[in-house]
Amino acid sequence: LKANFVLQFVFGSLTVLFALLAIGNLTGNSTILTIAGFEGIVCGASAFYLAMAEVLNEQYGKTVLPIGQRC
Question: Which of 5, 21, 27, 37 is the most buried (most CB within 10 A)?
Answer without folding.
Answer: 21
